[in-house]
Amino acid sequence: MVFKEKPVSEQPQLVSAHTQQNRQKLDLPLFHFSDAPVSSAYLDSLKSLTIKIKTVSKWLNAAAVEATAHQISLLQRLTFVQEVHPINGYLTASSTSAPASFKPAYVSKAINQIKPQALFEAGLTGKGVKIGVIDAGFYGAPQKAGLAPIFESGRETAFRDYVNPDQQHPYTVRESNLDYHGTDVLLLIGGYDPTLNLLTGLAPEATYYLARTDHGKRENRMEEENFIKALEWMDSLGVRLVNSSLGYATGYDDPKENYRPDQMDGSSMIARAVQTAIEEKGMTIILSAGNDGAKQSWQIIGTPADAPGTIAVGSSDFKTWTKQGYSGVGPAFLPYLKPDLVCFSANGTSFSAPIITGLAACLLQFKPELTNEELTNILRQSGHLYPYGNNFVGYGVPNAQQALWLAQDSLAATVSMPLKPLLVTGSKLKYKAAANRAAMQYNGGIVLFRKRSPTQVIRQEKRSTRARRIKLKRLPNETHTTLQIGPEVVELVWQ
C-alpha cells in the first residue's frame, strides 16, 4: 500500500556522511523526499488493527502487508492510504482459521453488490443460526430448487399459520397471490440450488422458523396482531434473528384503520412490540422500508420499520448506488436515521431486507456471542457512506468484508474512520476524483446527495464515471452534500 504523505524536513542527517559526499560529487541534492522515513503513526495504526507489516519502504512511502480480505477492504478506506496494490498481480487474502468450503459458481446481483467473497472464504453459510421469517405465505417453498435443501435436511424447524390456524397443508394450498411472497423472501435469505451451484441467499445452512401472519385478500389491523404473536412465539423458541418484509401504512379495507404519515414515529403497537423484542429479548429485527417512496401522498417508510432499534432496509440501484424511486424515505421528524441500509432490488424493498438478513446470519455464525446491539452497529458501520448516512439510503450498501472484519475485531468496531467533513466557503466547488473509473463502477459510481441538513436529502444526483472533476453549485437551502466517488466518500459542509 502507498501512503498519502509523510512528515518531511530537510535534514541531511537522514543519510550518512558518505552518501552526502557521493551526492555532492554527482551534483545531486543532499536531501530527497524519499530519504524521510514512513510516518510511524501510520505504521502504529496498522499494528493496532492487527495488520501484519512485512516490509516498509521509505523510498516508495509504502508498506507491504499481509492482510485478510476484510482487512484489505479496510485498508482501501483508510484516509492516510493513497493506493492498495497487489504484489503478485491480484489481491489475495491471507489464510483464515475457517475452511474455504463454500464456493458458489453463481450469485445473485444483490449478493454480488455487497462483496461476499470474504464470507465464502471463511466458509460462512449461516449454519447453526436460527432465523425467523414473518411473511404472507410460503406456497410451494419445498418444491423450489433453491429451497429444497432446507426442507430435505429438516432445517425448516417450525411453521405457524396465524391467518388460518387450521391449515394442514401450508405449502400446497394457495389462498391468495401473496402466498408466494414469503417463498421468494426465503429464497433471498437462504436459497441455494446445488445442481446449478447458484446462491440467492447468504444463509443456506441456517435453521428456519416460518410464520404466516398476512392475508393477501384482506387488509386489517388483525394482521399486525398476528405479527406480534409470531414474534413472541419465535422468541420462546430461542430465535435471535428475524426478517419481515411486511409493513403497514395505508390500504386497509376500512380506511379508518389507515395510518397518518405523522404516526410513523415508532409509536404503533407493532413498532412497540418490535422494540420490546430488541431491547428486552435481545433480538435483531430486519425489516423492509416499504415501497411508497414515489407515492406523493405518503413517500415515507411504514411501520414497524420506523422503530428505532430495527435495521430498516431500502432498495438501491445496482450500478449507481442511489435510492430506487419506490423505496421508502425516512421521515424528517424522526430523531434517528431511517432507513439504516440499502441493497439492490428491482422489485421492492421486500427483496432487499432478506439479503441483509443473510449477511447478519453469517456474522452470527462467525461470532455467536455478538449482542444484537453489536450486530446492528456492525451492519450500519459496514455501509459505504458511514458515518454520513441520510434518509434516502441510510448508511448505504453494506460491505460484507468490512462487516466481517468489524465482527472479528471488537476494537475495530469502536474505531471511527478518520473521515472529516470538507468545509466549503462560497457557493461553488470543483472536486478532483481520486479513484479510477473501474473502482468507481465497482463501488457505486459517482453520486451526490444534496441535503438541507446532515441527514435530510433534497435530491440525489448521478454523474458519469468518465468525469475526473466534479463541479458543484450550491442549491437553495443546501447545507451539506455527500459526494460518493466509487470507494471515496466526502462530506461537504457549505459555509
TrEMBL record:
Matches recorded under InterPro entries: Peptidase_S8/S53_dom, Peptidase_S8/S53_dom_sf, Peptidase_S8_Ser-AS, Peptidase_S8_subtilisin-like, Peptidase_S8_subtilisin-rel
Record-linked Gene3D superfamilies: Peptidase S8/S53 domain
Domain Peptidase S8/S53 stretches: 126-396
Active site (UniProt): D135 (charge relay system), H181 (charge relay system), S350 (charge relay system)
UniProt KW keywords: Hydrolase, Protease, Serine protease
Protein family (similarity comment): Belongs to the peptidase S8 family.
Protein name: S8 family serine peptidase
Organism the protein comes from: Rufibacter roseus
